[in-house]
Amino acid sequence: MGNHPTKIVCIGAGSYSFGLTTLVSLLRSQALKGSQLVLVDRDEAHLSIMHKLISWLNDVWETQMQIDAHTHHRDALRGAHFVINAIEVGPREGLWESDYRIPLKYGVRQPYAENSGPGGFAHAARNILPVLEIARDMETLSPDAWLINFTNPMQRICAAVHRHTAVKVIGLCHQLSAGYAMVGKALAQDLDIFIPPTFTSTHASMKYGVGMFATYLQAVEKIKITAAGLNHFTWMLELEDRLTGEDLYPRFRDCWKSLPETFEPLTRRVFDAFGLFPIPGDEHLCEYLPWVSDPGTRPWEKYELELYEWAEHDQERVDKWAELRAAAESRTNPEEFVPGYSEGALEVIESILTDSHLYWESVNIPNQGYITNLPEDAIIELPGVLSAGGVQGISIGALPEGIAEILRREITISHLTVDAVVRGDRQLALQALLLDPVIRDMDVAQQVLDDYLVTYRDHLPSFWS
User: Fold this and answer.
1) Against a cut of 0.85, is the pTM above it?
2) How confident is the model over 88-119, as pLDDT tens digits?
3) Are residues 168 and 139 in contact, defined by beta-carbon separation less than 8 angstroms?
4) Within-domain flag for 366
5) Cβ neighbours for 67, distance < 8 A, ≥ 6 positions apart
6) Whole-angstrom distance, CA of residue 150 vs CA of residue 147
7) For residues 29 and 61, what is the distance between their CA atoms, to the nearest angstrom?
8) Which residue range forms the structural domain that includes residue 446?
9) How many distinct structural domains can be found in the chain?
10) CA 96 to CA 16: how far, in whole Å?
11) What residues have CB less than 8 Å from 185, skipping those under 6 apart?
12) Terminal-residue alpha carbon distance, the chain
């Protein structure tokens, strides 16, 4: 592959979810040897820890990178070729729980409250303006750079960049792994896959995660999934044996029915109703559907939908930073704490630099006719090919019309949310909530919006200017 030194800026380098994984994968790359890697994070303590760790690994692994660190992105962007964005307005768990509890005061019980629903509106609203500040500074300081986005809500953040700047953006997400894990569980006997007994749900909980990841790692070696739709809302279009190319979808349909009905029960019902398998797993899927929040029938109980474990994940974050701080001070045994996988930024960067035409199974990019019955230029998730020209989506054609319709509604809500935040337009913000599947009353929508705007006033300056 040869060396292709470049300048990479990682904003949100102290990201709990993506920072260390992404930085380590970049350091391991032979193609990027000798590159300039710039770490940016507003949290000086976390930035210092990460800077020490990455500088140490750079020495240990002899990657010959120039490692720099800044607390503001503007000091880092000039001349960048790639900008990785993983910022999150915090405190993450505390704000997420608040996003959930505020609508509860008005009788609105969200199923998850992260990427859609009223919580998805609030989450997006807080992150959109900081990301757009980065993108607009890129237009001046690094206009030819690619923005590789990990910040959620993925579809809304990428839409904000695409609709309101000239920056080239690609979003990356690992949620397809949940689809692989579920398919692997169904086809375990056929494919000789060991299913850990802890893999009883795709929910983002530590008690399920290790087993799900182990199942995914086995399945992805043996099967190939083609999925398309929106981030956290994709649908399996094809399922093939990676070695023989055999169509495994018919066999999967039969085997899926034999799994316990308590395993992903919402996914099961949606699969039956729409005829294509939804990839994300129940806890992400539930956010976009109008049938899971009725206060009378309480469907979240029927489908056993679990809320995010805010306190546990907050403690996990604290523990992780203590571990990394200790590692930075001791400078011993890096293999004990560094992840051994990539979140995709490495592959995007290497493929653009080397023109490798790499097939990547899940990219979030503007729709340029790839899915014909979804709006042009909307951010969609589908397979793509990475090359010197950037990313080219794989043509999907038309999705089944029932599926396309619920995706189109989510796209409309996304665009209303983005434009409302950019313009500070409360009427558009209200429309975004009124179209949301969780909201059933106009007065309640107004109450939720007003409460969000007051509670998060410091994060939402455009609505108060």
Assistant:
1) yes
2) 998 999 999 999 999 999 999 999 999 999 99
3) no
4) no
5) 37, 38, 39, 51, 54, 55, 58
6) 10
7) 10
8) 411-459
9) 3
10) 15
11) 193, 195, 199, 215, 259, 263
12) 51
